[in-house]
Write a structure and sequence with these properties.
This protein is an alpha+beta fold. The chain has two domains: 254 residues, D-Maltodextrin-Binding Protein, domain 2 (3-Layer(aba) Sandwich), CATH 3.40.190.10; 167 residues, Dipeptide-binding Protein, Domain 3 (Dipeptide-binding Protein, domain 3), CATH 3.10.105. Helices cover 21% and strands 22% of the residues. The protein contains eleven helices and 24 strands. Helix 10 runs antiparallel to helix 11. It is globular, with a radius of gyration of 23 Å. It starts with 33 loop residues before the first strand and ends with a strand.
Length: 459
Amino acid sequence: MAHPRQRLAQAGLVAVALLAGCGSSPAPRPGGPTLRLALPLIPRTVDPARAGDLPSLNVSHELYSGLTRFSRTGVVPDLAQSWEHDADGSVWTFHLRKGLRWSDDRPITAADFRRSWLRALAPATKAPLAGPDLGIVKGARAYHATGRGSVGIQVLDPRTLRVTLQHPIPWLDQLVAHPIAAAYRPDAYSGPFRLARRLVLERNLNYWNVRKVKPAKLVLTTATKGADAILPRGLAPPGLPWVQTAKPPTGPGWKTLPTLSLQLLWSRNHDVVLQERTSLVPRATPGFSAITTTKEPSASIEFVPHRPVTLAYTAQDALASGARRSVSRELSRHGATVKLKRYATPAELARADTDLVLLGWSPKIFDEYNILDLFPCGSAFNVAHWCDPSYDALMRRAVRTLDDGARLRIEHELLDKLRSSGVATALGNPPEYVWLRPGVRGFSWSPIGFYELDGMTRS
């Protein structure tokens, strides 16, 4: 029974050698368009374990499939046809589809997933997202640090993978949709496409859902001239503490894409009380209307200044300039003199001595918990150094609550605590953008930050 909320080439290739294909798979069948797609940068690698930027993650995601795949509102089955968990959610069992094959015609089995996950966790792989995405698996953190010890990944039979967690969570089906959890081999492909030659992807005839793969070929480039589509410009992968998004483009053909990202303003000065401007829950999140009662709140910063106010921000955030102007105007309206301080990384900013902090967040799961996890006492990203033990206790309950409705009610309580504290306010939900040439259609986007190219075609 399915869970109710179903949701190129050896690693480390440098750009000059990227996407040099293996050529071991059969030639693609006739039919289907060749599409030229413009990326913001050439992927540094297409090894799904070693990928650390969104272009690399998205290209590897087209070449290597996982148990599940992100959709617009959650996840859907991919190489797993179904999954279930035990009563408390600490043991998950995934059932692979029948007849799965790599691009070189070898069977894809549960053992391939176990091998791929252990490789991603191995210290020698240096996978940048192994901890955040796979660290919840029992024994994974110790294995990631030392390369030794047992890990809760068990092969029951060729089509059954059992995963035991450190503690229960409701969204393992979402975490295994991330590319790092894909079935990986350096000489074959498990996803909708295979690597034909440098910067060229071709339809993988052995993909289980190949009949839905419309392009015969995808030609990747960074040049926008002559492109059939200009793909989203964002570079930061999900789950990182900043939002790097393109400025709104102008002209025909551009489409606005919703994201789960938030632009946040944090207060470190008890003289500064922030009142909610927009909801701390991104509007693209399932359950948004259930957890927030805020409809059209007005911006408000209550402040009686006794000295200049220091506003800190990070260099990574492309949206920071507009947000800085907005915050500075609001402070000036209260008679404050604003001093801006720029920091190279979020880690530097978290250690800085400032009054207000401008920081974005890019979630890796659809649940509101991903945003609320910024604020516990021990969180490395709690840049306001705000601490409420009762908030932490609610967070421990929320992450172990499998029922969606019950968890939403806990998260509503968490939001109320943040609102009453005045510790942070959301300045907005930055969108992403894609450009499609007239007649090109079928681009699909998940607010997590992953896109799908297998449905793209021309009218």
